[in-house]
Design brief:
Chain B: Keywords: Cell membrane, Membrane, Transmembrane, Transmembrane helix. The structure holds two protein chains of two kinds. In chain A, strand 2 and strand 3 form a beta hairpin. In chain A, the strands form two sheets. Chain A has a two-stranded antiparallel ribbon with strand order 1-4. In chain A, strands 2-3 form a two-stranded antiparallel ribbon. Chain A has one domain: ABC transporter involved in vitamin B12 uptake, BtuC (Orthogonal Bundle), CATH 1.10.3470. In chain A, 75% of the residues lie in helices and 4% in strands. Chain A is mainly α. The longest helix of chain A has 35 residues. Chain B contains 18 helices and four strands. In chain B, helix 6 packs across helix 12. Chain B is globular, with a radius of gyration of 24 Å. The chains are: A mainly alpha, B mainly alpha. At the A-B interface, helix 5, helix 10 and helix 12 of A face helix 8, helix 13 and helix 15 of B.
């Protein structure tokens, strides 16, 4: 028990970092699901692509000598904006080419296409990286080195950056969805596409914008991930995306605030499991089981409370 | 030219003659050429040609069996690459069986399962644990490893254990639908892999990431089946059994219930189809095929570890089903064969060819783009292209259409129909269309 208390502060910090990342990726899943009722499997790969694009931009800027002369915050903003824009376009393109032709097809087919897109992206990123440097594992230059040390607690500067940027992004999204005209249109399309189109909402455009916003956020999160954790490879996206999807389900899919809360919760739970699972079960389960833990949560939530912790149960129409 | 084609289409004796000629030509070239993948593939292609001939069903089966049992092994035997060919043929058999299993779940019952390889893993580990010394770590009685004679029992055992896991997965999953189902099964597949990867402590059951090595080869009448050409026949027998089972299931009451559930769950329920039982049966039967082949796979490789059972494998099998045509048995067989051969031979051959080209200095291909590494790329692209442009697959599924007059002319039926509901003949006559 004492070990649990001793590690708790560090677990909280690590959990919040991971949770923030889960939360923003979960937003992308939840927004697309809210509008199209489609699990966009490729979203995890967009996050991964964001991490790679961000790293490439960062390395490019370092090469130009900008990083040395400009404040790190400015560089970060620049990288975030460039990456977000590119991944946003990527998301829009995927929707246009792979999902839109299948909007009337059975869900099974669309889902399979999404898996295909996800594999394609993984491999494209892999071979681009590999042709560049003969190895697909990339080290991101650290933008915010060093850490604070408060009474034995290790707080990295990048942790603060991740948390602050993540919260800002979430606030911005809340504002966008609830206060702007596009947000209104998005909510209308999510409720009822046909009626929305009768109210002169351009449904296709709204869906494109949704994909752009979700993917831009996902890509930007990728940058944060790369900066904080330092090592990325083309296969980080799939499992991380799956866990983010778990977070979205946990918070009630289609529910934006629920996704944020679910992400934070899942991140904390996972870090807690990683730190304490073997201590609690007296060595029966090693910390390797933390992924099992996340999936078990997903399955339990889907079975006992499919509407999520914060969602409202949907009534099935016949 | 058109005339000749038409004549071929109409005349089945001509078809038979051409087919026999084709088989003779390809098997002869396989015998004469020392190492020719092309000849081997062309010989396999004869199955597809056979499928499209207009011969009666029994003779198609007779020719097919003759090729599988005699012509293919015999003509491959002559070259130095004998085991290699047989290895590929065995793999094709294993994957065809698995794809047929997944086809029941995805194609017929419409339940998207993204963790299908888990059942394969369960089957493989069932045999692997008991056919190595591993089992003595936790079993209080008996001496391990069991000898290869037990392999035959383990095929049945693997089938049941996998079916059990299928039901275990099915029970919680029944409450979720559509895309949620996909995610849950995906999670399940990952959980199984992680559990196998970590079950080396506190009690060492699966030997963790190191895997199980030197698994006892199967034994029959005192002969150890060590090589691919021997395992090939084992796989062939199981495969024939599975094809027989699938074909009879497809048009049985259960098979029709699966399709009804796929098309509309609520309507199916209203027609009196027990939803829970039907779905669980789909999971159990699909899983059992995979479990059986898992046992064979473990015996064939003599080594298994958790990396053989990743998500990529599950997707791989899904590609086979989608490529061939969801719900279509001949289609899925074709799809599985194409994907396996692509994976096991064509990509390797292409890589070697590109390598030889680049050493000759004609073109240089970066190592990152060698076809073997591009597996995900090809599969992803195949999934997208087929979903977009040919979502019914290479050989689309056909539903049996009953001929009303033929149906009515059968004596008993006619009497029953006349006595029960004369004005409603249409509905009776057109069921299943």
């Amino acid at each position: 028990m004492t070990q649990v208390w001793d590690t708790l502060p560090q677990v909280l910090i690590d959990g919040l970092t991971l949770g923030a990342i889960y939360a923003i990726i979960a937003l992308g899943y939840t927004m697309v699901y809210g509008i199209l009722e489609l699990i966009n499997f490729a979203h995890g790969e967009i996050f991964m692509a964001g991490a790679f694009i961000g790293t490439a931009v960062l390395i490019g800027l370092t090469g130009l000598g900008w990083v040395a002369v400009m404040p790190a915050i400015f560089i970060l903003l620049l990288v975030l904006v460039i990456t977000g824009g590119l991944t946003g376009m990527l998301g829009m393109g995927i929707e246009r080419l792979a999902y839109r032709p299948l909007r009337k097809a059975s869900k099974l087919i669309t889902l399979i296409t999404a898996i295909g897109v996800s594999f394609l992206l993984q491999d494209i990123v892999r071979f681009i990286t590999e042709t560049q440097q003969n190895n697909y594992i990339v080290n991101t230059p650290s933008l915010f080195p060093g850490s604070l040390s408060i009474s034995g607690l290790n707080i990295r500067y990048s942790f603060l950056v991740v948390i602050i940027v993540a919260i800002l992004m979430m606030i911005a999204l809340e504002f966008f969805v609830n206060r702007t005209k596009w947000g209104l249109a998005m909510r209308a399309v999510a409720q009822d596409q046909d009626t929305a189109s009768l109210m002169s909402v351009n449904v296709n455009k709204v869906i494109s914008v949704t994909f752009f916003v979700g993917s831009a956020l996902g890509g930007a999160t990728g940058v944060l991930f790369a900066i904080h954790y330092g090592t990325i490879d083309p296969y980080i996206g799939f499992i991380l995306g799956l866990k983010a999807f778990t977070a979205a389900v946990l918070g009630g899919i289609g529910n934006i605030r629920g996704a944020m809360a679910g992400g934070m919760l899942l991140g904390l739970l996972e870090m807690f499991a990683a730190a304490n699972l073997s201590a609690i079960t007296a060595g029966l389960l090693s910390s390797e089981y933390k992924d099992v833990f996340a999936f078990a949560i997903l399955i339990l939530v889907l079975i006992f409370r499919p509407e999520g912790l914060f969602g409202r149960a949907a009534i099935e129409k016949v | 030219m058109k005339k000749i084609l038409e004549q071929i289409r109409g005349n089945k004796w001509l078809q038979l003659g051409l087919l026999v000629g084709y088989i003779a030509l390809t098997s002869l070239s396989l015998i004469l050429a020392q190492r020719s993948v092309a000849a081997f593939l062309l010989l396999l292609l004869s199955f597809l040609l056979l499928y499209y001939t207009k011969l009666p069903n029994w003779s198609k089966w007779a020719i097919g069996l003759a090729i599988m049992f005699f012509i293919l092994p015999f003509s491959a035997m002559q070259g130095p690459a004998y085991q290699e060919y047989m290895d590929v043929a065995t793999l094709v058999g294993i994957y065809v069986s698995m794809a047929l299993g997944l086809n029941i779940v995805v194609g017929m019952a419409g339940l998207l399962d993204l963790g299908f390889v888990a059942f394969f893993a369960v089957g493989a580990y069932t045999y692997g644990i008991f056919a190595t010394a591993q089992a003595s770590n936790f079993m209080p009685f008996g001496t391990y490893p069991l000898s290869g004679n037990s392999f035959w029992i383990f095929i049945i055992l693997g089938c049941f254990v996998a079916a059990l896991f299928g039901v275990l997965l099915g029970i919680p999953v029944l409450r979720v639908k559509g895309d949620y189902l996909a995610i849950v099964t995906l999670g399940f597949g990952e959980i199984i892999r992680i559990v196998f990867n970590n079950m080396d402590q506190p009690v060492n059951i699966t030997n963790g990431a190191l895997g199980l090595s030197s698994i006892a080869p199967p034994k029959i009448f005192g002969i150890e089946l060590l090589y691919s050409n021997q395992i090939y026949f084992v796989v062939l027998f199981i495969l024939l059994f599975i094809i027989f089972a699938v074909r009879s299931l497809e048009h049985s009451k259960l098979g029709r219930s699966w399709k009804a559930v796929r098309e509309n769950e609520i309507a199916a329920q209203a027609m009196g189809i027990p939803l829970v039982k039907t779905k669980l049966m789909a999971f159990a039967i699909g899983a059992s095929f995979s479990g059986m082949m898992g046992v064979v796979f473990a015996a064939k490789q003599a080594f298994i570890d958790p990396t053989s059972f990743t998500l990529l494998q599950s997707i791989n099998i899904l590609v086979m089903v989608l490529l061939g045509g969801m719900g279509s048995v001949p289609g899925v067989i074709l799809g599985a064969a194409v994907v396996t051969i692509l994976n096991a031979q064509v990509l390797n051959e292409l890589t070697m060819w590109f390598n030889s080209l680049s050493t000759a200095g004609i073109i240089t291909l970066p190592d990152a783009m060698s076809p073997v590494k591009m597996q995900r790329f090809f599969f992803g692209a195949l999934l997208i292209l087929f979903a977009l442009y040919r979502s019914k697959g290479l050989i689309p599924a056909k539903n049996v259409v009953y001929d009303k007059r033929k149906f009515l002319s059968e004596k008993g039926t006619k009497k029953r129909l006349q006595s029960v509901a004369a004005p409603k003949e249409d509905e009776h006559g057109n069921t299943g269309s």
